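Thread: quick sanity check before group meeting

JM: Hey all, I'm pulling together slides for Thursday and realized we never actually wrote out the predicted structure for the chain we discussed last week. Dropping the sequence here so it's in one place. If anyone has concerns about the input, flag it before I start.
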Amino acid sequence: MHENPAPTMLREGCRGLPPLDARLEPWMQELLADPAACADLLARHGSPVNLHDFAALSRNAAELEEAAAATGTPLRIFAARKANKTLGLMEASRARGLGLDLGSHRELSQALDLGVAPEDIIVTAAVKPEPLLRLALDSGATLALDNLDEAAAVDRLAAPDPARPGAAHAGAAHPVALRLAPSPDELIAPTRFGESAATWTHWAQARAQQARAQQDRAGQDRAGAADPLRIDGVHLHLHGYDAAARVRAIGEAIQLLDALRALGHRPAFLDIGGGIPMSYLDDAAQWAAFLAAREDGAASDGGPLTWRDEPLRQFYPYHQSTVRGPWLRAVLAGEIAPGVSVAAALADRALELRCEPGRSLLDGCGMTLASVVQRTTTSDGVGLVGLEMNRTQCRSTSDDFLVDPILVRGSAEPSPPMTGFLVGAYCIEAELILRRRLAFPRGVGIGDVIALPNTAGYLMHILESASHQLPLASNLVSGDGGFVRDRIDAQPAVRPW
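JM (edit): ok, ran it. Output follows.
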């Protein structure tokens, strides 16, 4: 695993209780060591500001590619655009030769406008309205079919339409992947995504029977009929990061692929989705100490660990010992049957392995800065540090972001040493940027900068809100002349119909 710890001086201004030190890329260290540069970015672009440097993306992708190559497994990586909304992510992924995993009409439109080839796109949106389906069909992008209603909608839209003679899909079979919902068991939780293998097999059998009946009625030979859909692969999405669970799901997916081939289809890939683990923290012992403190319900100084002692129930495993390349090697070595590894099963069927990482691909690619605007306390004496941002601007679906912020000193006189919580702009009691109590051993000053490290994957964008009519964070991408505004901030928010 790549490790590049920051100098101790960057850690001293703000510490968790217990501390959880972030992994920092060199570009982050360099910027955080320059208070004037941090303050200037906020002065010019507003607070908060999301900074991106996509250099680490190539390294992260290479780690996965090398793991697959070691077993002779062909691997195709599709960057999960939903993890980060910048056009810079799409441009960096395209330059690296990666595909794109897209989740909306707007994401797909932007990719096509950039000139991304349809064979480099998979559309995996959980809900696919008709305009999105039409655009995917017209462009030739692969659709991951989630359920039978979606498959029926695609059939209807794929039918020849004299009013749309210029559509790219006219007369052609449309590439699709069937999203499998693996059978739940002690390893795999129930999922809302996909249909069971039995459901898809029955659908494919009924489809084949219907096609034969239509051919017989039309007096056609069977070779002359064309199915509007071409099943190119099987796709799955699992919640969680356990390699053994992924191996079990792959085994079921391969059975479905075999059943589809027996019905005359020629699927060529198996897509294991995202959920490839990464590690935010350098130190496994720090993570263990946090888990122990969470169990005890008290911080390392004996005070409360969290806001009002509220428990943290759901969170990402911020330190993991097996990530990216080693994790993929473990998956490929896993056995789907006695003596049959995943890698061997894929090779026997000449199947390409695909994946759609977001968080693990964007590891090291982003950081969020915000200005300190006030220091105060609650009416019962709990310390507060107010930031010019809101809690949706660094939040995923977890209860908290469990990485220590970094305090970048400004020129103002700091407060006395204090402990307390980072709070934001929304007018609600629990408007917390982080739910953990933090220590500021040398105080904190108005105009200081709080840096939230490694936020590019999901944390910046997936839940961001402009409530109170506060502007969304500006997004900057590094270039030859420093950080420049990403063009996503100039995109009009319009409906596709």
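AS: nice. The radius of gyration is 25 Å. The first strand starts at residue 15 and ends at 16.
JM: adding both to the slides.
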